[in-house]
Amino acid sequence: MKSVAIIGAGIAGLTAAFYLKRAGVPVTVFEAGAQAGGVIQSLRRDGFLAEFGPNTILETSPKIAQLVRDAGLETRRLNPDPKAEARYVVCYKRPIAMPGSPLGFFTTKLFTAKAKLAVLREPFVAPRRDGVEESIAQFVVRRFNQEFLDHAIDALVAGIYAGDPHRLSLTHAFPKLKALEDNYGSLIKGQIFGAGARKRSGEVAKDRAPKFSFDEGLQVLPDTLAAQLGDTVKLNTTVTKLTQTADGWALTLSEGRVPRAPLTAHEIGDSQRSSLRETRVEHSAVIYCGTAFRLAELKVMCGRAALPRSLEMGAAQQHRPTEDKELEPLDLSPFSEIRHPPVASVVLGFRREDVAHPCEGFGMLIPKIEGFKILGTIFSSSLFPNRAPTGHLTLTSYIGGERYPELALLPAEKLVALVCEDLRVLLGVTGKTTFEHCVLYPKAIPQYNVGYGRYRELMNEIENKAAGLFFAGHYRDGVSLGDTIVSGVNIVERVEKSLTAK
Fold it and tell me: Residue 386 has what pLDDT?
């Protein structure tokens, strides 16, 4: 029977495996680390619950809610506290609530009269039709003004990508904004006249999508999927090589313990592998659901007809393998060019009386122009119950990204000190921490910078020519947790069609 190998047991890989198994397709998931779930990890300690990576899932597609139902997790789903709807942006060195209505926008202190007039003028700004790829910064300044970029969009970009708005591509990082201008000539017109199309598709914009978690944190989802997949998930197993065969693909496996993806501060530099042994298995198709930088290291041998034109010259210059004269190496090194800045997650607990701000809301985003070290803070214990003991708060802050990559690499005690100093000014924190947990992601979020289309084009070309090899995950279809889940769902249909064609 035709079978599928999945490389990577993050949420995309687990989702794809879950639905392939339900469809009766034999599947095996190979995970280099010791735990499934990738960056989704939740820690319960001393009455606090800390999320290492994402804190919520945005229900932007009906496919996300369907996965929760199919996994049997509806009773464990948690919606946020209704009082936690407020979102703050730091301005004048203090968090100010973002307006929730058009009237609120024109009365908020976040923007000057000039910026508010720029929003009124936006429907009359001519759309760009010359085909030039813009950065999100160029787009915002063109359609609004510099103030809107500095005080709003810069903070938003830090919260989503930990990125730089002057580098991020409008087309690839914010494709829905690009589509609004392309289809309606204006963002505001698109919001008004595109409501019907969005309703028919069942998709919801990220800024209005319901968010949720689970009773014991987001790790409940990957743990449940992995448990239902059982021994089809092979941990501590690295795929080092793919070789195209007449019937599909042969995978060379290196089995043994390797370091997990997120590192605590004292684990930086610990990259030793131990007790490794090689084996070889064969499958009809392969889905790569790992990271872009690991993809660049993967050795792939395929028929010359499968080589993308952009790689043929480079392959021809390499020594032909002695093991099979009909195969050529597929150079995946271009994917190493995708930027992944380091990000540190710092989860701190405080006594309620030691924090002056009410912290009733989702959290706060911080523009670079305000001069703080942290990118933003989530009011974790205000969002969901049982995230902190009675009389305490849990605050999750992020440091690093493209803004200050060097700060993410600091030792844990220095990270805590930096965060506490910023929170002292922003939230009126006066007391000592009652909980601390720091996690470093040395290569965190892939940056969809200007020119990112060439990587997607390369993936498309490889999929079209190297039959049975597929790509899915946050480097392909969007960096949010919801985007990654949808990527895992969508790849299943394409793989099933491929197997049927064979």
Answer: 94
